[in-house]
Amino acid sequence: MSGLPDCQTLLLELHGGVLHITLNRPDSRNAMSLQMVAELRAVLAAVRDDRTVRALVLSGAGGHFCAGGDIKDMASARAQGADAYRELNRAFGALLEEAQHTPQVLITVLQGAVLGGGFGLACVSDIAISDHKAQFGLPETSLGLIPAQIAPFVVQRIGLTETRRLALTAARFDGAEAQRLGLVHFVEQDAQALAERLDEVLQQVLRCAPEANAMTKKLLLASAGQPSSALLNEAAQWFSAAVTGDEGIEGTMAFMQKRKPRWVS
Q1: According to the model, what pLDDT value does residue 2 have?
Q2: Which pLDDT does position 157 carry in this prediction?
Q3: Fewer CB atoms < 10 Å away: N or C end of the chain?
Q4: What CA–CA distance (Å, rounded) separates 92 from 41?
Q5: Alpha carbons 249 and 74: distance in angstroms, whole number
Q6: 112-122: buried (b, 16+ CB within 10 Å) or exposed (e) per residue?
Q7: What mean pLDDT is predicted for residues 63-84?
Q8: End-to-end CA distance of the chain
Q9: Proportion of the chain in helix, strand, coil states, percent, rounded to 5
Q10: Which Gene3D superfamilies does this chain map to (predicted)?
């Protein structure tokens, strides 16, 4: 087994060929900090070539999956200028690309907030299991921002038509609607049912040969077409322009001050 990195924002538990990865910043509803992005990428790199690790289970501590990007990181990037925003944004896109292509079967267990970056992570999972009360959404435009790195993966997951509606309204929706959209595969009524469904799915995955699964996943992704690195690079530039523009400044300030931005009457 490859050595797993030491992590401050993640809890790692490996047993029976399954690596359980828990996003562990419950005070911020597991908001995706730059450190968490780096640690997730390091974990994926550590297991990439290890076929004894058959599946990755990604979940969140404290009743939430992930509430999106960390506004505090964005505030610190402001002092460093536009390039810092672009790099911050692009690092998350790199995580999504690497999670999408990890040879292991990636399973997400979704509870509470599944917003922004959390929504993106759900979209790159092979199998998604949701609590019926989970709250999904793409809130970026309501903050004067754009879902720069996330959007191509959402379009690939649920199609352009529904993504346009969700991204341009910042609408929130529950697990049942997520299943209707094809974002998640299973919706369960409580924590016990979620755990039982996860056990069932893992039993199915472990019946499949690991190298055959890795190659099949590679084939399926190639067959479907991929969000390109060139597009994600350009999107990071657009994100930087948005977050440093008038709307981005007003939207993030309004969020931190717990008030409506000026474009909301």
Answers
A1: 55
A2: 97
A3: C
A4: 9
A5: 10
A6: bbbbbbbbbbb
A7: 85
A8: 56
A9: 55, 15, 30
A10: 2-enoyl-CoA Hydratase, Chain A, domain 1, Lyase 2-enoyl-coa Hydratase, Chain A, domain 2
Over residues 142-182, the pLDDT tens digits come to 999 999 999 999 999 999 999 999 999 999 999 999 999 99
Q: 22-71, pLDDT tens digit by residue?
A: 999 999 999 999 999 999 999 999 999 999 999 999 999 999 999 998 87
Is residue 43 within 8 A of residue 1, CB to CB? The reply is: no
Which amino acid, residue 190? D
pTM across the whole model:
0.91
Nearest residue to 25 via CA among 69, 62, 56: 62
Q: How many CA atoms lie within 13 A of 163 on its CB side?
A: 19
- The answer to whether domain 10-210 has CATH 3.40.50.620 is no
Helix (H) or strand (E) holding 244: helix 229-244
Closest CA to 129 of 102, 110, 145, 114: 110
Summary count for the chain: helices (H), strands (E): 11, 9
Q: Are strands 172-173 and 127-131 parallel, antiparallel or unpaired?
A: unpaired
Question: Is 78:98 a contact under the CB 8 Å cutoff?
Answer: no
